[in-house]
Amino acid sequence: MNEPYSFTFYTASWYRRSPYWQRTVEAGCRSWDLYNHMLIPTLYEDDEAEYWHLVNHVTLWDVAVERQIEITGPDAAAFTQLLTCRDLSRCEVLQCKYAPIIAPGGGIVNDPILLRLGESRFWLSTADSDALLYALGVQAFAGLDVSIREPDVSPLQVQGPRSKDVIRALLGDEVADLRYYRCWEGSVGDIPVVVSRTGWTGEVGFEIYLCDGARGKELWDRVMEAGRPFEIRAIAPSDQRRLEAGIFNYGNDMGIEDSPLHVSGMERLVELGAEFIGKEALQRIAEEGVDRKLVGVEIGGEPFRLWLEEPWAVRRRGETVGRLTSASYSFRLKRNIGYAWVPIELASAGNEVEVLSPDGPVPAVTATLPFLDANKDIPVS
Question: What is the pTM (predicted TM-score) of this model?
Answer without folding.
Answer: 0.95
